[in-house]
Each structure stands twice: as C-alpha cells, then as structure tokens.
C-alpha cells in the first residue's frame, strides 16, 4: 500500500508509547491519522502536532468505538489502515499463599476479564468495525482495500509468573490473526500482528534505574529496550508490503522471557 495524503488511518492507543510512535510515523508519510485513546489531554496534543484528530474511545464499548470511527471518517474519510495498540496488563498469580499469615487467595475474575475485554475483545471489536468500513472502499490497482496491524506480546509465547490474563489476551490476538486474514482475503484486506518484547514505553521507563538496567541486560542483542520507533517501522513495513499477510512477528532483540 502506498502511504500518502490520500490514505486515512486509525491508531488505537495512539496517545503514547507504541501507538504514538506509529501515529507519528504514519503522519510523516502524509497519512491522515485519527487517534483513539482514553487520555484526552495527551491524545489531543499528539493529534495537534501531527495534523490529525483525536477521539476519546473506550475499546470495550460498541457505542464508544462506533462514535470514534464516525468522527474519524467524517474528518478523513473511510480508513484504509487500522493499527491496534490499545491495551493493559496486570501481574497477579493464579493462586497464592501470603507470606505473612498463610492466607490463600486467587486471581480476581473481574481483573482477569478486564484484561481480556480490553486486549482481546477490544482488538477484535475494532478490527470487525474497521474491516466492515473498508469493504465499502474501491480496491486499489492491486485489489487491496486495507491493512490491519495488531499488537500482541512475546508474553503470548513465553508469559511470566503473574501474566495469565495478559498472556491469554495476547495469545488470543496471535490466534485470531490468520483466521481473520482468511476471512478478509477475498476483499483485499491484509491482517498482521507484532509481538513486541520490552520497549521504552512510559510504563517501563518509569521504573527505578536499576530495574531498567536489568531489563536492558536481559535482551540478547542489542542490549537495550526497543525504541517505539522500531515498532512503528515494522508496522509500516507490514502496511506497505503487499505480500505481508497473516503473519505474527516477534520484535524483541531475541529475548525469551524467564519464568519471573
């Protein structure tokens, strides 16, 4: 797909981290970008910087997602690109015993469900609604109507202790990639997923310096966290390369996560 000012894109979670980097990379190519996020202050600021628009969107809500797409399409027209970066995580053991008093507790089901609803169901909700819109587009010369990029995690394949919900949600994103690519193949819509390792996002960069150094040392090569711009670089490759379809690609400096 050729990226220029004739193309519109939606990036969920686009106000910070991997999503923000992708917004900036797309805008640098001339693409008209709409940011979906809950952080209105940051989202509006990034949109203003890149000449895009912002919509406050909760990916767990049909009404919110519908309103976001309506706003984006009114401003920019039907998007040909969707990049899903919205997500959360938590760290809770499935069942555990207190070191203080020996009491036993289990993973709260509401907390498990929240991660699944945002990371997995929210991703699928945005895919389904965006793809339905893409079907209204005229195909380009190669028959392509659109491209979708999802964000999973290396935790989908080697989740650590306490990551049952997060790993399940990201594993679901990996598993839905090929079936959706097959669902949409006759309509010229490609679907791919990135599995990032540890990246310099606001969450990780807020850790103590020693913790950041330990994370850097855990990466085989290069011995550092990934730069969000490197995620964006791969996302744009997946979008621009017309033969890239139905793939799940790790972007992690060859890291394999330890149990803890």
From TrEMBL:
Q: Which Pfam families match?
A: adh_short
Q: Domain of life of the organism in this record?
A: Bacteria
Protein family per UniProt: Belongs to the short-chain dehydrogenases/reductases (SDR) family.
Q: What is this protein called?
A: NAD(P)-dependent dehydrogenase (Short-subunit alcohol dehydrogenase family)
Alphabetized SUPFAM superfamilies for the sequence: NAD(P)-binding Rossmann-fold domains
> Which GO MF terms are attached to this record?
oxidoreductase activity
Q: Which UniProt keywords apply?
A: Oxidoreductase
Q: Which PROSITE patterns match?
A: ADH_SHORT
Tell me which species this is from: Sphingomonas jinjuensis
């Amino acid at each position: 797909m050729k990226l220029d000012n004739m193309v519109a894109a939606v990036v969920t979670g686009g106000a910070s981290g991997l999503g923000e980097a992708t917004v900036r990379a797309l805008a640098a190519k001339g693409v008209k970008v709409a940011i979906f996020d809950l952080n209105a202050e940051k989202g509006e600021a990034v949109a203003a910087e890149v000449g895009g628009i912002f919509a406050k969107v909760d990916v767990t809500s049909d009404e919110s997602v519908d309103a976001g797409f309506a706003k984006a399409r009114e401003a920019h027209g039907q998007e040909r690109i969707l990049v899903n970066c919205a997500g959360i995580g938590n760290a809770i053991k499935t069942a555990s015993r207190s070191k203080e008093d020996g009491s036993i507790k289990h993973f709260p089901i509401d907390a498990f469900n929240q991660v699944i609803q945002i990371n997995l169901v929210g991703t699928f909700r945005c895919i389904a609604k965006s793809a339905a819109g893409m079907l209204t587009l005229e195909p380009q010369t190669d028959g392509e109507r659109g491209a979708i990029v999802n964000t999973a995690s290396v935790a989908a394949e080697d989740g650590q202790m306490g990551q049952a919900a997060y790993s399940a949600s990201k594993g679901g994103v990996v598993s839905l990639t090929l079936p959706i690519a097959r669902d949409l193949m006759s309509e010229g819509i490609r679907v791919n997923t990135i599995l990032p390792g540890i990246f310099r996002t606001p969450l990780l960069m807020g850790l103590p310096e020693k913790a950041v150094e330990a994370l850097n040392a855990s990466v085989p090569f290069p011995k550092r966290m990934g730069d969000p711009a490197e995620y964006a670089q791969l996302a744009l490759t997946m979008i621009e390369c017309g033969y890239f379809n139905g793939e799940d690609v790790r972007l992690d400096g060859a890291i394999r996560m330890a149990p803890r």
